[in-house]
Specification:
By secondary structure, the protein is an alpha+beta fold. It is 31% helix and 16% strand. It is flat, with a radius of gyration of 46 Å. It catalyses: Thiol-dependent hydrolysis of ester, thioester, amide, peptide and isopeptide bonds formed by the C-terminal Gly of ubiquitin (a 76-residue protein attached to proteins as an intracellular targeting signal).
Length: 1073
Amino acid sequence: MAPRLQLEKAAWKWAETVKPEDITHEHIELAYRIAVPACKRGTCRRNCKGNPNCLVGIGEQSWLGEIDENAFHSIDDPNSERRDKNTFVGLTNLGATCYVNTFLQVWFHNLDLRRALYLFQNSRAEGYHLLTLTRVTLKLNYEPRTICEHLQYLFALLQNSNRRYIDPSGLVKALGLDTGQQQDAQEFSKLFLSLLEDTLSKQKDPNLQNVIQQQFCGQFSYVTVCNKCGRESPLPSRFYELELNIQGHKNLTECVTEFLKEEKLEGDNRYYCESCQSKQNATRRIKLQSLPRTLNFQLMRFVFDRQSGHKKKLNTFISFPEVLDMGPFLEGKEEECTYELSAVLIHRGVSAYSGHYIAHVRDAHTNDWYKFNDEEIEKMEGKKLQLGIEEDIAETAKSQTRKPKCSKGYHCSRNAYMLVYKRQTEEIEQTETIIEVPAFLQKLVDQDNKKFEEWCNEMADMRKQSVDKGKAKHEEVKELYELLPTEDGLSYEFVPLEWLKKWLDDSTSIKEIDNSQFLCSHGKLHPDKIGDVKRISSKAADLLFSRYGGVSRLGQSSLCRDCVTQRCRVIRLKNQLNEDYREVMNLVKSSLKSDESGFWIGKASLRSWRQLALDQLEEDEEETKHNNSKVNGEKSTDGVKGDNEDRDGEEMKNFNEDILCYHGGLNILENDRRVVSAEVWNKLRMYFPRAPEFTQNNEACQQCMRLEREGKENEALNRMMANEQKSSLLNLFQEKNRPTLQKWPQETDVLYIVPHYFVDEWRKFIRRPAKSNPVSNVGNSLLLCPHGGFMFTYDSMLQGDAQHIALLWPAEWEVISKMFLVDQAISICQIRDKTQDNGNVQYQTHPDLCRECREGFIFQQQRDMREYAQATVYVRKVIDKKRESAPEFSVSGSDVEDEREEPKMDGEKDPDFSQSEVGAKRQKLNESASLSMAPVTAASKSGIRRSTRHRKLRGEKALIVSANQTLKELKIQIMHAFSVAPFDQNLSIDGRCLTDDSATLGSLGVIPESIICLKADEPIADYAAMDDVYQGKCCSCKLNFSYQYVSFPTPISAGGFLCSVFFCLFFLPSLYA
């Protein structure tokens, strides 16, 4: 089938030879493409939109022939959610809870822990069970509430649920975890086991009280030996896991050896020996006293990077055995010290702040290994049995480090962060590995299994209903589609193509048939819309309208003769346009005869008349449409454009409008128009019948000519007025011999004040009197309050308020009073005390200062400075307790002259360093205190104007801050900008130290353009918890437990050991009160 453009061209080819008045019904059918052959199936890859008879590729493929029943529904097989036989149950990832799921699977496979947890005494559950045994009907079923109750129920579901995976949201909610934020996995493990130990310790059963200690708790001692007397000082301690440094090590044995290695205490770190009663050189090491049944090794993969100020992950390969002999590391070998690997916890990802957690766990019944990845569980056997091996997220195969070779019985991993070993015991009887679920928990599991089976049945019924509905729709569509094609000589109708597609698309709801959007202004089918409709048989149309309803049925009588006639006229004019364009352009080159009267035409219209004609023809065509189908601003691309069709940057809408004035008459600018012959004008009138017409004898607009004369007269008057004012106020115009308040002139005691805005506007008028309006009013009311009082003090006018006023000599004020309208005279007088010779001088303004309005004005300015947003402050790093050392100004070459420093007088302050202290109270009005809101603009003694821009120094950076931002947040910004940890930052502004991290910058007096001095202390010894503290992650798990842990990058000796309780109770409050 021919492309759409070819069909369009063929449908209107007849219009080139047929006049509009000679159009017949055959021409109309050609325009609507009634006779275009219909496409056969298999000949079109997609529907031919230009052919109204093509019914192929509209979605019928899915309904013809044999159809798969699965195509009638989008419901997955509910049996895919069912747990397979002899498989484990997965856990749903609630967003970022994969780290929780891995630990829950590891603890579930600890049979001793699971058995003990089932023995946890629950008074509510026992009462519920007794009532059930006595056949008492309960209105409410038992539901877990506490953390232990939720953990009991979760383990019961993992053991006997029929689901392939279960939802742990009950336990996660009880723990108070944020499901959208990934927490520290190692910290969660410690806190959860501590919480569980605290809860179980309150049980009556002694075996249940100590189950956490029996399973996970071991003992070691920090032993310090004096080198002089040999006295040993042991400090016993308990541990639940051993935190091993992996940096620089290759296997687990090396990590344990470093953990237990001897440390020398010498020099300033000498040990105070109680026997010697003095400080002595000594050695210190950790001695393992006893090991638990389950031995957890935390591999410290996440360490603090001092350079970046953030945590980073160590991707070091560590080798670990399947069987581990801890005998060589234990003090005394009375107990069994051989351990078997039972679980490997893995972190996938290159970042310490994101990634995914997976667990490899050994089944205690079969000794088979399984990979637990949230909902997915996979048995690891054969080549898949590679413990601790998981590809990193967002890391290509080329960038991955090559895995070292491992001996038999050993495994290597770069992502394992926790290893769980189980103590080897003698053969356990089969009965000991079978753990029964308590009856009250099994009843909850049975209820959940019942709900699951009901859900499966409901999904199966929905699938069946969807299939039955689809089969019925299939028969209906198949029957109707065969009736759609129309035969020659039979009646037909038009229906929307999009409606047919939606009718054949079972996923969308079917609306009634609506043809109203395809109608022309005559209420019939518009020829341009033929590509959006399809021609079908009247029999099929009757069935579709009877079943689905609709409006505006379009039959054979809907072919619009008027629209076809108008389009024919447009096509003929377009074809004639190129010939007329060449003829007109040749005629305008010849001059008029002496006795011939011509017509005025705009030069811009003459240059672009062909494009205007095309646009006009398009507009005439659009007028026949009911709805405008063209995009707003779209232009026709038909025809050939000439070289002189540019609009000269203007948008011509109507031909010859460029010679019209505002009054509708002939424009007085003769350079914008020219005279053409009557022959040329008649040609153009054929395309623009409504264009304005002016003969050569027409006069220009009289009103415009009068206004032009008046304008020239006003311009001359303005020039005369400007010359007179300039000669009278020459010094004011040239800014020469200006009075200043800094050095009061001796020849007068009175100076007059006007707004600086008045002087600026007056100078603009003097420079360009023909382009600017003359200034008539001084406008001193701008400097007065509503009560008529003056708004500025003498001191404020010496500083920031000097930019608002201009000072005048009395003689200049006399001239201004005569030449301009003065609403209110403002002056300042110097009053000397003649009775005394001490030189006491006072200054008085007229009108007097309005103190009430002045205080309100200052208070509002101070308030604005405290309530800013997205303002710039500058942080300057101070080295060696000095503000700066040989500062180098970073200015461009073009700014050097403007920003050159002039010599400062004694006592003069550098504006780059002086900052106004902003308090919460209103500033008192006195002679010595004033608010400086802007740099001084008055000329200094040397006459050089200072730049108002801030000049950045080396070691200084600009930060964007807000007034409601806390000092803590600012310190984090500074840490990223200067790589100085918040702990080491000493900030000050104008000599005031900023210490309250919880206070806002507005309350601390930090205003826009402030300069904050940063002095960096020497870094503290331990950086492990720094990032967590400032990222708010130190106590991320919201457990009701007071014991906190701090992870250190390396093992810490007894002397350097900082317990986490001291850290959280003393160090953090000192930072953030």
